């Protein structure tokens, strides 16, 4: 689950 | 998206424009480490492979495309267009010492043992140390063109700004990404010496020169 990580960062 | 994150990304964008501007106006890539630039291409390609399977936002999409395209363009400028101005004899850091440990660490410390997840982790670890060949080169020559130091300062600021961004996200969104945070702290730490000289010399109007 990506929701708790910073994968929306560059 | 918060202000720190946005300023960080803008600083990252600015660093790339400064670098391209430096190469094109001086018609030279003197003082720039090809190895560091090649590592950045590796970092972006490994991390942004998620363009194919993870949609985040239009902002995120265009930034990723820009970072991949501009980093490849910089390699092209260095390798072909201004090749004679690049001196490989001072750009001698052994990148294997960075890529190897990044591969091993990403296989051990990751969130999930899956191919794309490991690629993402690898890119985070590799980015943390990708600036080392450049800093090593700076150390060796003991000086840098002012524009090159502005490039490095903008790149370092991008990383430094991500730190308050994580603190902010911890409190407002409950997002904590230990891999990104630890690697990011290491990465920012590598710039401390550089920042010291940048603030005490370059911003006072002096040339960037290291004590002999």
UniProtKB/TrEMBL annotation, chain B:
It is a multi-pass membrane protein. It comes from Coniophora puteana (strain RWD-64-598) (Brown rot fungus). Keywords: Endoplasmic reticulum, ER-Golgi transport, Membrane, Protein transport, Receptor, Transmembrane, Transmembrane helix, Transport. GO terms for molecular function: ER retention sequence binding. Signal peptide: none annotated. Its main location: endoplasmic reticulum. Belongs to the ERD2 family. This is ER lumen protein-retaining receptor. GO terms for biological process: protein retention in ER lumen; protein transport; vesicle-mediated transport. InterPro entries: ER_ret_rcpt (IPR000133). It is found in: Endoplasmic reticulum membrane. It comes from the Eukaryota. The chain crosses the membrane at residues 52-76, 119-138, 150-167, 179-199. One of its GO terms (cellular component) is endoplasmic reticulum membrane. The keyword Signal does not apply.
């Amino acid at each position: 689950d990506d929701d708790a990580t910073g994968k929306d960062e560059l | 998206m918060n202000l720190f994150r946005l300023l960080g990304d803008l600083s990252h964008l600015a660093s790339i424009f400064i670098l391209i501007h430096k190469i094109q106006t001086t018609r030279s890539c003197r003082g720039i480490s090809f190895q560091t630039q090649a590592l950045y291409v590796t970092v972006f390609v490994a991390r942004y492979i998620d363009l194919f399977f993870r949609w985040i936002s239009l902002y995120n999409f265009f930034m990723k495309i820009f970072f991949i395209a501009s980093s490849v363009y910089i390699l092209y400028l260095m390798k072909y267009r201004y090749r004679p101005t690049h001196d490989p004899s001072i750009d001698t850091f052994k990148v294997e010492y960075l890529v190897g440990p990044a591969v091993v660490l990403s296989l051990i410390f990751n969130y999930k043992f899956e191919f794309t997840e490991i690629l993402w982790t690898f890119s985070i670890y590799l980015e943390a140390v990708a600036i080392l060949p450049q800093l090593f080169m700076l150390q060796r020559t003991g000086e840098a063109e002012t524009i090159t130091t502005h490039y490095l300062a903008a790149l370092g600021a991008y990383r430094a700004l991500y730190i308050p961004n994580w603190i902010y996200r911890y409190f407002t969104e409950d997002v904590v990404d230990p891999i990104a945070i630890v690697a990011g702290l290491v990465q920012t730490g590598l710039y401390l010496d550089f920042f010291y000289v940048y603030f005490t010399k370059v911003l006072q109007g002096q040339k960037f020169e290291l004590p002999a």
